């Protein structure tokens, strides 16, 4: 496991008080690191504050057993440096967490990023000073700095959700959350272990924990679909072929709705015979992973078509899990792909092990913890350790943990009380010079995350460069354009079956959260085109204050590489709707 090179400074560095920067970045994951790199390229001074003891964001915190990426390794990396592309090699088809964290540390070292990052430091408040037209940023260490720009690189899945079960303090054993795993690891050998949750982190960790534990009891509220990864060592010939023309491969991936490349069949599922569909699904299942959803073009838009792939997946579960009652519990009855599709290695097979038990808590939820374990439906289950694989407060949870105050005392939390409101997922009216990387209202979690991050950072960098070139003081979206964008995001979401079920896409996993479909589902290239159009039209929909009259045409130093054509062979109904629905 990579070390945390800067964690030793936690009690050593001096506080930063009344220090001025051009920009403050919150978070040193893949978004924060690349943002810092671009800010330096612009010649702007920057400070990055990171709550963890090292870089990597999601991959710094999520060290649970079996954690790995669900996008193939050759596509899950930065694309801004051809030298970086060529010098780094992945060992597996799907990279494990330690290797991704190694990569993050390599990037931090290669580009000398750590000298501008302060680790073990949580940003607690960011307040816009109307008179000075600057942000005041405060941390839990006592830092208080100012900046013209505040950039939130806090991640979409970084605010761990630990349900407040009654009696947790009474439990005598350790309680772990997959999103805040001990860096030294956990040895479950010979222990009686309980796992709460059956989402992605549970599906990855349960098979590994089961290999160690004396007994494993899994508490399931809602079953999830999962497709085998068929992970293996990375084929050197495949790697060489991609590296021979990496930029072309990247461009081809960006033109796809998901922002990453895989074989995609645009034909409607119901146009095929049942026998043809069975063969097609079997072929795509054998390939494994998220590309399974590419078997037909209408699976996320036609319920009858979706029923065919859902039943295929349920048949797979019933064919793997030997006990019919357990298999029935593991079979979802909702839309296939409506929730984030999981990718696994031996997940369903794990329930065939004699020491693994599945407990349904859908109708009788967990009541409480006791000294010995967990009680549900009047039954006490005794454990030595409990793992909460209970997910995250997705998309907006990390923003909620910072007291962000804009113009006239308006807080972001209050503004977003009924659901997040942004323009392009990048900015929010009432909060000048505040930028969000992969914020709600952008493709974010519905695209490959690193390309989504890079596209946002490049757009922000060109925006900041334009403001510097023109002497502008503030930039802020108009309420009308923000309202139109929110309406557009909602209208496009309505086309997809993904908006029809209770998932973390709509905040359904957190009690009391408004049910709003948060990511933009119109497709990555459609979204990129809209961002490019806004920039090319002189930041249409924004009010820029203080700029000189001359030199108002924006340069596209960073965003030039995002001007790719849409792959019309794989355009989805949501993308069609996105092109037809007017934004302004």
SSE blueprint:
Blueprint: E1 17-26, H1 30-41, E2 46-49, H2 58-61, H3 82-87, H4 97-110, E3 117-118, E4 123-129, E5 134-139, E6 144-152, E7 175-177, E8 192-196, H5 200-212, E9 215-220, E10 226-228, H6 236-243, H7 246-254, H8 274-287, H9 303-320, H10 324-330, E11 342-344, H11 347-350, E12 356-360, E13 366-369, E14 373-376, E15 379-382, E16 385-388, H12 397-400, E17 403-405, H13 412-415, E18 434-436, H14 449-470, E19 474-477, H15 479-493, H16 524-536, E20 542-545, H17 573-580
Parallel strand pairs: 1-2, 1-6, 2-3, 4-17, 6-18, 7-16, 8-9, 8-16, 9-12, 10-11
Antiparallel strand pairs: 4-5, 5-6, 13-14, 14-15, 19-20
CATH topology term of the largest domain: FAD/NAD(P)-binding domain
Distance between the termini: 49 Å
Radius of gyration (CA) equals: 24 Å
Name given to the CATH architecture of the largest domain: 3-Layer(bba) Sandwich
- What is the percent of helical residues? 25-40%
Strand content: 15-25%
Give the structural class.
Answer: alpha/beta
Overall number of strands: 20
- Rounded average pLDDT: 91
Under the CATH scheme, which class of the largest domain? Alpha Beta
Description:
30% of the residues lie in helices and 16% in strands. It is α/β, with parallel strands linked by helices and 584 residues long. The protein folds into two domains: 7-159 and 394-546 and 555-580, FAD/NAD(P)-binding domain; 160-225 and 337-391, FAD/NAD(P)-binding domain, CATH 3.50.50. A hairpin with a 4-residue loop joins strand 4 and strand 5 (134-139). The longest helix has 22 residues, at 449-470. The chain is globular.
């Amino acid at each position: 496991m990579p070390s945390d090179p800067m964690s030793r400074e936690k009690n050593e560095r001096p506080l930063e008080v009344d220090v001025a920067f051009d920009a403050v970045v919150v978070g040193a994951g893949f978004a924060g690191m690349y943002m810092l790199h671009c800010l330096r390229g612009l010649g702007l001074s920057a400070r990055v504050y990171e709550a963890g003891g090292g870089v990597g964001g999601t991959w710094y915190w999520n060290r649970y057993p079996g954690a790995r990426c669900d996008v193939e390794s050759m596509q899950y990396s930065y694309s801004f440096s051809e030298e970086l592309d060529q010098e780094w090699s992945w060992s597996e088809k799907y990279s494990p967490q330690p290797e991704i964290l190694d990569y993050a540390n390599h990037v931090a070292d290669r580009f000398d990023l750590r000298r501008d990052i302060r680790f073990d430091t949580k940003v607690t408040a960011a307040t816009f000073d109307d008179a000075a037209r600057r942000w005041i940023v405060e941390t839990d260490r006592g830092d208080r700095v100012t900046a013209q720009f505040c950039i939130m690189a806090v991640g979409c899945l970084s605010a761990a959700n630990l349900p407040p079960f009654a009696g947790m303090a009474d439990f005598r054993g350790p309680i772990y959350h997959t999103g805040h795993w001990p860096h030294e690891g956990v040895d479950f050998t010979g222990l009686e272990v309980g796992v709460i949750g059956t989402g992605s982190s549970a599906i990855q960790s349960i098979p590994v924990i089961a290999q160690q534990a004396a007994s494993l009891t899994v508490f399931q509220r809602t079953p999830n679909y999962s497709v085998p990864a068929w992970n293996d060592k990375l084929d050197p010939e495949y790697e060489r072929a991609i590296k021979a023309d990496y930029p072309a491969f990247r461009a081809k991936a960006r033109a796809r709705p998901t922002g990453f490349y895989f074989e995609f069949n645009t034909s409607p599922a119901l146009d095929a015979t049942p026998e043809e569909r069975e063969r097609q699904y079997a072929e795509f299942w054998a390939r494994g992973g998220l590309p399974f959803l590419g078997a037909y073009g209408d699976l996320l838009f036609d319920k009858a078509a979706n029923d065919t792939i859902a039943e295929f997946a349920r048949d797979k579960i019933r064919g793997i899990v030997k006990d019919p009652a357990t298999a029935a519990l593991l079979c979802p009855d909702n839309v296939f792909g409506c929730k984030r599709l999981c990718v696994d290695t031996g997940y369903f097979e794990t329930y065939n092990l004699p020491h693994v038990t599945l407990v349904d808590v859908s109708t009788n939820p967990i009541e409480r913890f006791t000294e010995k374990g967990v009680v549900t439906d009047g039954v006490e289950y005794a454990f030595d350790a409990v793992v909460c694989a209970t997910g995250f407060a997705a998309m907006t949870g990390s923003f909620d943990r910072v007291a962000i105050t804009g113009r006239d005392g308006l807080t972001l939390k209050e503004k977003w009380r009924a659901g997040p409101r942004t323009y392009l997922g990048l900015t929010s009216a009432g909060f000048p010079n505040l930028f969000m990387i992969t914020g709600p209202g952008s493709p974010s979690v519905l695209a490959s995350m690193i390309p989504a991050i890079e596209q946002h950072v490049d757009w922000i960098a060109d925006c900041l460069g334009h403001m510097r070139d023109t002497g502008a003081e503030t930039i802020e979206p108009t309420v009308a354009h923000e309202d139109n964008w929110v309406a557009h995001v909602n209208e496009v979401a309505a086309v997809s079956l993904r908006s029809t079920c209770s998932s973390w896409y709509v905040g359904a996993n957190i009690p009391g959260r408004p049910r709003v479909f948060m990511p933009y589902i119109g497709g990555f290239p459609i979204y990129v085109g809209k961002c490019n159009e806004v920039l090319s039209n002189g930041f249409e929909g924004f009010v820029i204050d203080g700029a000189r009259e001359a030199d108002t045409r924006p340069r596209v130093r960073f965003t030039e590489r995002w001007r790719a054509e849409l792959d019309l062979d794989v355009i989805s109904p949501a993308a069609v709707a996105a092109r037809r629905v007017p934004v302004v």
